[in-house]
Amino acid sequence: MNEQTIFVDMDFFRNGLIQLTETMSEEELDRIPQGFNNNPRWNIGHALVTTDYLVTNAVGESSQLPAHYPHLFARGTSPQDWEGKTVPTKDELLEQLKANHQSLQQLIQGKLDQSIPFEMFHLKTVEDVVKFSTSHETLHSGIAKTQNQIQS
Question: DinB-like domain: from which residue to which, for each copy (predicted)?
């Protein structure tokens, strides 16, 4: 797949996550529907943190996000543990979603064929990581959308 196609896919799915976030209120972002362990804000933040972590590590760079984000949104975290912690507002999440997207595309430009310095599933190249991350981001976008629809 060529770089332009990868970037178009990244744009499409990140813009969908941004648009979903824009449609929700702070209260909707924070509600945990019955049967779920987390809320839309967590799913959106988790998608952001995971994509950033995987892609930056794939090219040997440092995270582009505020240092406290993984403590809130990494795998195994929960909004139920957020009491007393600084959780990003909707506007802050939107700002990070937009800025991170642009910086990640700059980081990977011309590097899609590069081998990655870690082992994970079947992933071998930066392109593999980007495709996996985009799929993961889309999964959590869908969960956040479903959670919001359940609440409405």
Answer: 14-143
